[in-house]
Design brief:
This protein is α/β, with parallel strands linked by helices and 202 residues long. The protein has one domain. Helices cover 35% and strands 20% of the residues. It is built from 7 helices and 7 strands; from the N terminus they run E-E-H-H-E-H-H-H-H-E-E-E-E-H. The strands form 2 sheets. A 5-stranded mixed sheet has the order 2-1-5-6-7, with helices on one face. A hairpin with a 2-residue loop joins strand 1 and strand 2. Helix 1 crosses helix 7, helix 2 packs across helix 6 and helix 4 crosses helix 5.
Length: 202
């Protein structure tokens, strides 16, 4: 089901992952997938270890990629088979992220698959949290606070300076950024039933 969503991972006060999802953003779908992933201590530990070399894609990255695409003869953004192989060789993780048809939440598993790379740059969809008419659910894993946070869309009740996404509000939209509805300790996550109870009672 088309339930747009956002998955954010924060480490050292910096968003390292801000992954947009088009489908299945509800707590009983993406939420449970993330709970299951982080309920495995090995996943939590392994992801934390590679986060120092993970960062969000930026304008400089885009410029370098555009220049590379032009150098291999791709001027319209559509890669032929030969160009795909060249792109995959130059940008192995980005190729997987862009063309791998990832399901919601799968970006975390894919990052672990590419842990051997020196640097991992992920698509930056952080600003999607700004308009909760479109961003229906968001999940923030904050390693600094050791928290797993759940945010809900359709927020017309306002937002305060203490809210994580306060800085994204432009002051003009009737819909504010997504609003936090539940917080769980990352090292003591609830079982599935308790998680859904806390998220869906709002």
């Amino acid at each position: 089901m088309g339930t747009r969503n956002l998955t954010v991972v924060v480490h050292n006060k910096e968003a390292k992952i801000a992954s947009y999802g088009q489908f299945d953003g509800y707590p009983d779908s993406l939420g449970l997938k993330l709970i299951k992933f982080y309920s495995n201590p090995e996943n939590t530990k392994n992801l934390k270890e590679i986060l120092p070399k993970v960062r969000l894609w930026n304008d400089k990255d885009q410029k370098l990629q555009d220049e590379f695409l032009e150098s291999i003869g791709c001027t319209n953004g559509i890669l032929n088979e030969k160009q795909k192989e060249a792109f995959k060789k130059r940008y192995p993780f980005r190729y997987r992220e862009r063309y791998g048809k990832l399901t919601e939440g799968q970006i975390l598993e894919v990052l672990l698959e590419f842990a051997h790379l020196d640097e991992l740059t992920t698509i930056d969809a952080y600003d999607f949290a700004s308009d909760s008419l479109f961003c229906e659910w968001a999940y923030v894993i904050d390693y600094d606070k050791n928290t797993f946070e759940v945010y809900k869309g359709l927020n017309t009740s306002g937002i305060s300076e203490e809210d994580r996404f306060y800085s994204l509000y432009d002051g003009e939209n009737d819909y504010y950024p997504v609003k936090i509805i539940a917080t769980f300790p990352l090292n003591n996550l609830p079982d599935e039933n308790e998680f859904l109870l806390q998220c869906l009672k709002q």
